[in-house]
């Protein structure tokens, strides 16, 4: 009986794929986990309790049919496991690598609640799809019938690519426009290789291209082509740009030399890994080698920055976060990985000001003037760190950080990376679009069921609607929008309750 292969959580302990030693992995940008072998993946999958109400599935934004593909893996029916997995998820091998499973599926596993340790869902998901690629089960879209209607997708991130895949499989003509020279968005340029090796993303891009998706790269909408021109060329348009505008600090010397944005820093690092020439990396501006690095922020982007700096050969890496470890928005698994690799976390602390020195002039601190007597830009020398305590909860229920007066101190720094989160660009203004409604936060206003915007035939998904969020939510939005767009183009649109 199939059930005899399951319910092994009582006798079989939880086991993750072996992590490469910190001393070894901090020298390169390869992924940190070794692969599961067939037997080990089957053994770990067999720990699933096959519960009647699978919380793992209900807490997954894509509602992946996790218990079924765990059972199929335990039974050695890997191709069927892959088919079930990809039925609800366009990029399972990517989600298996970068989803914060500890907050989603694994964090809600029933056997975890009973003290037996969660099933290693993410690692098995990654294993299933990597095996599918190796064995040739992953095939490009081959629509039964080509359709004449075309869709223009602005943004080649996970939301846009998920929609492109779904629409292409139904035979629609799909063109994806993106500002970068490679598709993938943050999957390509925002997430470091030690979490998501780039050939994993590139082979997905190639698969979409093989399936008939057209890519127009190095294309800035509003500069190289107007939004109206894209609307004119296509029967429907999907906006999936993501959010790239960095939140900033309102402190002294905020623009000192050596103070950089996380997105610029990570993009440069990823481009170097691709073998591209990056002048700002070569001249040291976006390179942590030999520097005392301070990263400001506590989300997953901050974790990507601190771990990248370690790999680039930083002298020291410290992460300032204004709350404590328990209130950190980033994955606890990532914090642990970073600590193992030599990152120091300075909890309950925030920058009060940046103190610079002017290159070529004695190292006296200049707190207010960014421009020195020679007109040169002040170079970061120290960060004035303010100590915090947690006060009353804010509207979200999290305790608000409060300043402890008189507890400031100065921390030496050669490179400061701001990882403070992202905000939407003003797209209506940037693109010169009339009638595209936005919320008070600047995100595009779209129907939560159909993803239709205020403009007819224009849809929007992902972070540009939600604000900065997870890749898995962008994939869900993209798949849902593809369904709505197909209905809109064929006259079978489902009517959504406003």
What would you note in describing this structure?
The strands form 4 sheets. Strands 3-2-1-4-16 form a 5-stranded parallel beta sheet, sandwiched between helices. It has a 5-stranded parallel beta sheet with strand order 6-14-7-8-9. The relative contact order is 0.12. The protein is built from 19 helices and 16 strands. The chain starts with 21 loop residues before the first helix and ends in an 8-residue tail after the last helix. By secondary structure, the protein is of the alpha/beta class. A hairpin with a 5-residue loop joins strand 11 and strand 12. It has 3 domains: 133 residues, Orthogonal Bundle (Fumarate Reductase Iron-sulfur Protein, Chain B, domain 2), CATH 1.10.1060.10; 161 residues, FAD/NAD(P)-binding domain (3-Layer(bba) Sandwich), CATH 3.50.50.60; 175 residues, FAD/NAD(P)-binding domain. Keywords: 4Fe-4S, Iron, Iron-sulfur, Metal-binding, Oxidoreductase. Its EC number is 1.4.1.13. This is Glutamate synthase [NADPH] small chain. GO terms for molecular function: 4 iron, 4 sulfur cluster binding; glutamate synthase (NADPH) activity; metal ion binding.
């Amino acid at each position: 009986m199939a059930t005899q292969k399951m319910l092994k959580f009582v006798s079989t302990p939880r086991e993750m794929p072996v992590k490469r030693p910190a001393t070894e992995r901090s020298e390169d940008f390869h992924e940190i986990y070794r692969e599961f072998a067939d037997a080990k993946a089957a053994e770990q999958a067999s720990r699933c309790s096959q519960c009647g109400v699978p919380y793992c599935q209900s807490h997954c934004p894509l509602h992946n049919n996790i218990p079924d593909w765990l059972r199929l893996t335990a039974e050695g029916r890997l191709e069927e496991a892959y088919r079930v997995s990809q039925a609800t998820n366009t990029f399972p091998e990517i989600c298996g690598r970068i989803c914060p499973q500890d907050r989603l599926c694994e964090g809600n596993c029933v056997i975890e609640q009973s003290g037996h340790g969660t099933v290693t869902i993410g690692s098995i998901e990654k294993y299933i799809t990597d095996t599918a690629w190796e064995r040739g089960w992953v095939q490009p879209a081959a629509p039964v019938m080509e359709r004449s209607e075309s869709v223009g997708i602005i943004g080649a991130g996970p939301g846009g690519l998920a929609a492109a895949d779904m629409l292409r499989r139904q035979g629609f003509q799909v063109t994806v426009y993106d500002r970068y020279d490679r598709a993938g968005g943050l999957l390509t340029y925002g997430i470091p290789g030690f979490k998501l090796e780039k050939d994993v993303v590139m082979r997905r891009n190639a698969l979409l291209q093989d399936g008939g998706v057209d890519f127009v790269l190095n294309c800035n909408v509003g500069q190289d082509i107007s939004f109206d021109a894209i609307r004119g060329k296509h029967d429907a348009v999907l906006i999936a740009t993501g959010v790239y505008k960095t939140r900033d600090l309102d402190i002294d010397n905020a623009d000192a030399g050596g103070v950089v944005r996380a997105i610029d820093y990570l993009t440069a690092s990823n481009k170097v890994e691709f073998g591209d020439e990056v002048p700002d990396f070569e001249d040291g501006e976006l390179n942590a080698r030999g520097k005392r690095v301070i990263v400001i922020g506590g989300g997953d982007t901050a974790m990507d920055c601190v771990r990248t700096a370690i790999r680039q050969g930083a002298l020291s890496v410290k992460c300032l976060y204004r709350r404590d470890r328990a209130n950190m928005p980033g994955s606890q698994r990532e914090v642990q990985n970073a600590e193992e690799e030599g990152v120091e976390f300075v909890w309950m602390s925030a920058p009060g000001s940046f103190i610079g020195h002017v290159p070529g002039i004695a190292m006296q601190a200049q707190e207010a003037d960014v421009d020195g007597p020679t007109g040169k830009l002040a170079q970061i020398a120290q960060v004035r760190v303010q100590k915090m305590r947690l006060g009353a909860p804010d509207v979200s229920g999290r305790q608000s950080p409060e300043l402890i007066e008189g507890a400031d101190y100065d921390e030496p720094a050669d490179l400061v990376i701001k990882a403070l989160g992202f905000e939407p660009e003003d797209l209506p203004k940037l693109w010169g679009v009339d009638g595209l409604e936005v919320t008070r936060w600047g995100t595009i206003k779209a129907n939560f069921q159909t993803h239709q915007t205020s403009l007819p035939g224009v849809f929007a998904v992902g972070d540009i609607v939600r604000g900065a969020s997870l890749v898995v939510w962008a994939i869900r939005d993209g798949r849902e929008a593809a369904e709505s767009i197909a209905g809109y183009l064929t006259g079978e649109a489902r009517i959504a309750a406003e």
